[in-house]
Amino acid sequence: MTMAVDAAGHMDRIYRWQVGFYDLTRKYYLLGRDQLISDLRPPEGGSILEVGCGTGRNLIRAARAYPHARLFGFDISDVMLGEARVAVERAGLTSRIHLAKADAASFDPQALFGESAFDRVFCSYTLSMIPPWRETIDRALAATAPAGRLHIVDFGEQDGLPGWFGRALRAWLRSFSVEPRSELRGVLAIAAQDEGRTVKAADLWRGYAVSTIVGPRAGA
């Protein structure tokens, strides 16, 4: 519990001063988020969960893209959740988007939302911010229905970009406690195999980001 409280306080300290203009600035470098949302394509009346929903920006876009879906999201930061609640209310989507506070590495979807699993689960630039990111992947997969999919987009290794760019980007990201996960593909491949699922990964913009989809369980 202490670790979760420390993590929540750390996130609040990072975002308290920038939450008002967070979405305006992030659109220039959190690339691939809208493509992820376009790829979700939940079944009619299906459920979508965002792990680390931040300001609610992605959930609002997903709600508009899929008007018959049920949407859920959580974050560990009170600052971000406060912004998300305001944004969801402003968008007129409080009846469709359900928000809660939770730790991504240990969340219980049944306790939070009364849902045991979701048709689509997604992580948008969250794993690079969460120190126990492997545990977060395990929890996200556990919350993905057998016939569902887990979608992830996050920073890649930038191996197709000039070296100076990658070094500068990583140094800048570290100032926000963001660290690209070089082992992400391998960890996802093992986790998917253990779950009997397929995994498909693609580099975006010469490795600037990586997009991954973990598919349904075999036979689901």
TrEMBL record:
It comes from the Bacteria. One of its GO terms (biological process) is methylation. CDD domains: AdoMet_MTases. It holds the Pfam family Methyltransf_25. InterPro entries: Methyltransf_25, SAM-dependent_MTases_sf. Keywords: Methyltransferase, S-adenosyl-L-methionine, Transferase. One of its GO terms (molecular function) is methyltransferase activity. Gene3D superfamilies: Vaccinia Virus protein VP39. Residues 48-148 form the Methyltransferase domain. This is Class I SAM-dependent methyltransferase. It comes from Phreatobacter aquaticus.
